[in-house]
Amino acid sequence: MAKKSKKHQPSAGGTPATVALTSAGVSHTIHSYDHDPSHPSYGEEAAEAMGVSPDRVFKTLVADVDGTLTVAVVPVAGTLDLKALAAAVGGKRAAMADPTLAERTTGYVRGGISPLGQRKKLPTVLDESASSHPTICVSAGRRGLEVELSPESLATLTAAVLAPIGRA
Length: 168
Prior knowledge:
This protein has 168 residues and is an alpha+beta fold. Helices cover 24% and strands 30% of the residues. 42% of the residues are buried.
């Protein structure tokens, strides 16, 4: 699993996430690695491949909060607290969204859903633990591709609410 990194540069092969970052002029680093389809966890695979602590690599999950699809961005080392997610957006009840609906709505495949550049802009909640790191990594829009950026930049670009939605 070779690690390749590069500073942001517009390219014809970019994903909607990398195009959004470049268009916004946000400083970021792209990390690519060879995705192993047999790995049990996309996020843990990314952390291992990049040599980054799992508490700095965040997974993008799509949940249904009272009938509204909502994006949750939490560390790969933990799990999503659905009750806390619902509370963070003023909802009562949350459940994980149907994977097919999540893929169709975001425009990304499972394991490659990015909080950035989604087909439809969804309410987003970023786990508050992100703010304890100078940079975090999230999916750049496909399996084997991560983007490293400041949590502040991610929150700004996605209009995210910061809240304690992750559980260790």
